[in-house]
Design goal:
Elements: H1 16-19, H2 22-31, H3 34-63, H4 71-85, H5 87-101, H6 106-118, H7 124-136, H8 143-157
């Protein structure tokens, strides 16, 4: 079956760790261990799918003719093309992977590394995507945004 046709029962607009605490967090993270880490397998599968789509867009961007555009327009167009290719979805998936990976359950982090390794990948693209996401959040003075940025950076540092 197509990757996109299979439902994924977990959806989040931000990291699990940022929204839940205590026993709620533990219950959610335990869901990722159930059925021999089935949800982790699905997350990594979707991560690889969307990572491939974004990498294809990156190649197309590199090959494009850099005619009379200024640097700002070129960067904005490239970013929009990456978003169209699935960057936003990749960022959401990687945020969830990062959250469960750093939740303190060794079998989850081992499973993520194992699955990525089987496909010739490493954890580094997740780190890069999340660092890019943190930069996209901007330098606003909003405490919630700053808290989210610090939370993500703390998790990235644990990879």
């Amino acid at each position: 079956r197509s990757v996109l046709r299979q439902p994924f029962p977990w959806s989040s607009s931000s990291g699990i760790n940022a929204e839940y605490g205590g026993s709620q967090l533990q219950r959610i993270v335990n869901k990722f261990v159930e059925d021999d880490h089935l949800k982790v397998d699905r997350l990594v599968e979707l991560h690889l799918y969307y990572l491939g789509k974004v990498r294809e867009a990156d190649k197309e961007i590199e090959e494009e003719d850099e005619e009379e555009e200024d640097e700002g327009e070129r960067e904005e167009r490239a970013y929009m093309k990456r978003l169209d290719a699935g960057l936003f979805t990749l960022q959401r998936l990687d945020y969830i992977i990062l959250s469960v990976y750093t939740a303190g359950i060794g079998s989850i982090s081992e499973r993520v590394k194992q699955l990525l390794n089987l496909k010739g990948e490493t954890i580094e693209p997740i780190r890069e995507v999340m660092n890019e996401y943190v930069k996209s959040l901007g330098d606003g003075e909003d405490n919630k945004t700053n808290e989210e940025k610090q939370n993500i950076q703390s998790m990235v540092n644990q990879l």
